[in-house]
Design brief:
With about 210 residues, this protein is an all-alpha fold. It has a single domain, classed as Tetracycline Repressor, domain 2 (Orthogonal Bundle). The chain has nine helices and no strands. Helix 1 crosses helix 6. It is elongated, with a radius of gyration of 20 Å. The N and C termini lie far apart (about 65 Å).
């Protein structure tokens, strides 16, 4: 048995998404109120639940919309491929900072969602982690493009190198999550410049080694 999709008024959906982006950006998942979202969107609370089913589903839809916006805005195909891993981190940070200035609510929603994912309801965690995997797939592609501009040592497996670099990205993300658990004042990429510097240091070590030869 299939569930019929509820027909949605595009204008009301746009207003709900705008209101939800702002509410979840400002207050986070737990403190954002659907009553306030409904009032800001000029719709009934019942309509929000008719469209989305639950606050959890509305939140996931909001993060999906923010993810789609940042992926459409920061399109890797629109930028020149950097020649080294450190430049990849620097460029990525620059693009995300620019996105945060032009889309503050969307950026804050993503910072909250990915930084505090382990504090969300279990079902929401699974869906948010799936969205994170989508963004990681884009990063993996960009890393491969950078490696294609470099000369790897003979005998090195390209996929193994990419896996190692992705492991470092996961470490950086884990450090960011640990920071978010203790700090709730991250409003932009400027507030986590330390993690950018850490990522640059890690990538520099990966690319150039850590022992004198």
């Amino acid at each position: 048995m299939t569930t019929k999709e509820v027909p949605k008024d595009p204008q009301k959906v746009a207003r709900i998404m705008q209101a939800a982006q702002h509410a979840f950006a400002k207050d986070g998942y737990r403190d954002a109120k659907t009553d306030s979202i409904a009032a800001a969107a000029k719709v009934s609370k019942g309509l929000i639940f008719h469209y989305y089913g639950s606050k959890q589903a509305l939140y996931v839809a909001t993060v999906q919309a923010a993810t789609a916006t940042i992926m459409a805005t920061i399109d890797p195909k629109a930028y020149e491929i950097p020649t080294d891993l450190v430049a990849l981190v620097v460029n990525g940070t620059k693009y995300k900072s620019e996105f945060g200035r032009s889309h503050p609510d969307e950026m804050q929603v993503l910072i909250n969602a990915y930084g505090e994912v382990d504090q969300l309801p279990e079902k929401v965690q699974t869906q948010i982690k799936a969205l994170y995997e989508q963004s990681i797939a884009v990063t993996r592609t960009m890393i491969g493009q950078v490696l294609d501009k470099m000369t790897l040592r003979p005998g090195l497996d390209r996929d193994v190198v990419i896996g190692l670099i992705m492991g470092v990205y996961n470490q950086v993300f884990a450090e960011f999550q640990a920071h978010m658990v203790k700090n709730h004042d991250v409003k932009s990429m400027d507030d986590v410049q330390w993690i950018v510097e850490r990522a640059k240091a890690y990538m520099g070590i990966l690319e150039y080694g850590f022992a004198e030869t």
